[in-house]
Amino acid sequence: MKKMLIVLGLSLLVCSLVAEDFMQPAQVAKDSYYSGMRFGVRSVSRDQDPAPEYSFIPNGDGENTTYLTSSYYDYMPFSYNGYNLRKQPEVSQPYGYPADGWYVSYMRSETEAVGTDRRAYYSYINADGTLGESSGINSVINREGFTSTAVDPITGDPFVAWHAVTEPDGSYDSIVSYALYHATSTPGSWRTPFILFDNPEMSEPFTLHNDDEFIWPQIWIGPSPETGKSRVHAYGNNYTYTNYNSIYLYADFDDMDLLTSSDLDWTVQTFPYWDYLTYDEIERINKDMIVSEVDGQVAFVGAFGDSLMCMYSDDYGETFTNYTQELKQPMVNPLCEDGVTYLWYNDDGITPAEMVIVPSSDLSHYNCAFTEEYTKIVWMAGVNYNNLENIAGGMYMPAYMYPKMFTFDIATKGFSFYDMDVQDTDPGDDHMAVAWDLNDDGEVDEYYEDGTPVVVMSTPSWLFLGDYQNAYFHESNCKVVSNGNWLAAVWHDGAKLLNAYYEEPGYDNWIHQSEIAISISDDSGETWSDIRYINANPLDNVVDPTNHYDNNFAPEFDGMNPVTISLDSKLEILSNETGNYHAKLSFVFIDDGEYGSAVQGEGGYTNSALRYAAIDLEFQAVNNGGDSSDMTLIPNAELLGQNYPNPFNPTTTIAYNMVEEGNVLIEVFNVRGQKVKTLIDEHMIVGDHTLVWEGMNDNNQKVSSGIYFYKMKSGNYSSTKKMILLK
Q1: How far apart are CA 128 and CA 217, in angstroms?
Q2: What's the burial of 546, exposed, middle or buried (CB within 10 Å: 0-12/13-18/19+)?
Q3: Which of 125, 412, 444, 598 is the most exposed place for a label (fewest CB within 10 A)?
Q4: From CA 611, how far away is CA 69, in angstroms rounded?
Q5: 3-class SS at 122?
Q6: Does a structural domain hold residue 614?
Q7: pLDDT (tens digit per residue) in 431-479
Q8: Which residues of 591-602 are buried (b: 16+ CB within 10 A; e: fewer)?
Q9: DSSP state for residue 473 in the 8-state scheme
Q10: Do 277 and 291 fall into the same domain?
């Protein structure tokens, strides 16, 4: 592996010749038309929960948002996929330092010379939401970009990965650094960065290609099969080949490895099937990685071609199995009102097009989350309406793109989907919504005055300046986060600003005004609430249907343009009591000083603020799923109590309730997912019960200070809670 010299001698001239390192579309956009199209219209679903109520949570200074820093780089500062905002454990081990803050990483340009002046930065956000510090991770400018963050659940130490120009020819390697919070109790003690993906030397023995550049790295930390260690996982996509095969690495470490500034011992692998799809120019692979925090599950989920995909491991990433399922729904090409003319034709203008719904390479900036006791993985991405002629020619119709929530069931190895935006009569059934037949009767719902069918459009982007591909591929961003069976999905919606762009009556004051869309689920993604829209348009503070104002204005965003949101990696449960269900959603965003992405040639360069905020989301049902009106049912009642005291030393009491006679199993696990102690595994009668854990493992040995989880199973009830042992 070549040394990390950070190319001190690399001239600014060479850097200025380096092409922009953002991802490019997989297909050629085919012209789409505008003819008074309807945008973002949702059907009324009788079974759908109402849009969630929310309120901003002020930080310790009483402010609703926390200023982190500012940057001239205004395109995806928080990376495409994965997470940039991660929370520490409450206590950093092994020395017991208080932690509980957030690390967020991003790329920042201090000047308008964004092609050369771009560095990997971080901010540390205190537990009360105030700013601790913001600074560069590396002191040398190397055209660094597209960071990703992970936090070790034991030490609280952050890992940040990014890519940078490290070669005299201007090519990229991917870099990593970590900070020694556990040794210093301060957030900024970063070690010298070192190379993570050494391109192309590291991958060439696997791919047999000598021109690979694996960049846009994503990083996770989870349990390790080695006692006393954590495992860090990372992957990158191939910048040289736009179908994006990947390199994947993992390494085991403990606090002493970090204290000695080890480069770690990395295991490297690639995925031959993805290599085939890439080098033989078969299909673009859209994906993101997730790592379980309690066991050895590692997965990549996404899509390629007309198939959904999960590359799955249950042995900590050491071996993977690829699961796929075709997602290609035929769609009738509707007739116009004259009964003769079709809506879509092939390029000859004579042959009616054969229409299908297939996975989209747009809306590919997403992440994924575990739910339902780590037995399901969910992610939000898009599908496109297209025709077979376009597909054969490598073209697509970017205007017809619709967000879906996808689920991979680990037990059945099957996939399912849910219509998140434009919906038909049942958004969770086995067919995707057809946007001209939302009542599912097989007929066109409505016609325009010229007799063409109304095709309801989705607009999942904060930006629209006349080009659907720029909006939906480059500036879309849909993220999901979970805790137990609660999920929140967040994305941008531009329905009103797009209508304003096309000068539709009543939308005059929506120019450059997008909205944030939020939907929640309390049943592991089986169903989703209606959408809560939040915007920064001060005119939208009254209900006025004639001007498309509906009172979604958030005063906390007054004077801002909040875009490119990135979420915390976990919802924080605030309250899970009968009739009082609340979770905290933390996020970061860029307050764009001028509408448009200057890096993409749209809008001017402004020193735009990066900010942190948190909102309180109200859920409808308890954390383990179900309806709050059915609190007496075993699956829905919260039977497991919070231990007391917590933190504790040396003993703590756990209360639980049996509403039906039967077997109960309560076990204690460490943060690596390893079982520490079986507290009870026996038949119990109906009623309230308590037990005491004395901080011992199954071998009657005292365990060390740290975070532990205790899990109760009884019948079809399951619940897990966290406790802290302090000595």
Answers
A1: 30
A2: exposed
A3: 412
A4: 7
A5: strand
A6: no
A7: 999 999 999 999 999 999 999 999 999 999 999 998 999 999 999 999 9
A8: bbbebbbbbbeb
A9: I
A10: no
Instruction: Tokens 């929640």: give the residue.
Output: 520
In a domain, 680, yes or no: yes
| Residue 447 structural domain | 287-328+357-458
Of 396, 171, 240, the C-alpha closest to 306 is 396
Domain end (from 424, 458, 492): 458
Q: φ and ψ at 600, to 5 degrees?
A: -90, 10
**Both tokens of residue 542?**
């009254």
Same domain, 293 and 409: yes
Query: Which tokens hold the place of 77?
Result: 């500062």
Question: Scanning the structure block, which residue is given the tokens 């109760």?
Answer: 712
Residues 103 and 22 in one domain: yes
**Cis preceding-peptide flag for 94 (omega within 30 of 0):** yes
Q: Decide if 54 is inside a domain.
A: no
CATH code for the domain in which residue 688 is found: 2.60.40.4070
Structure-model confidence comparison of residues 546 and 105, the more confident one: 105
Q: Are residues 308 and 440 in the same domain?
A: yes
Are residue 398 and residue 321 in the same domain, yes or no? Answer: yes
Instruction: Specify the pTM.
Output: 0.85
- In a domain, residue 538? The reply is no
Look at the chain and report how many structural domains it folds into: 3
122 with 103: CB under 8 angstroms?
A: yes
Q: Phi, psi (5° rounding) for residue 378? A: -120, 150
pLDDT-derived band at 343 (thresholds 50, 70, 90) equals very high
Which of 42-56, 380-394, 582-596 shows the lowest mean pLDDT across its residues?
42-56
Read off the tokens for 572: 């924080």
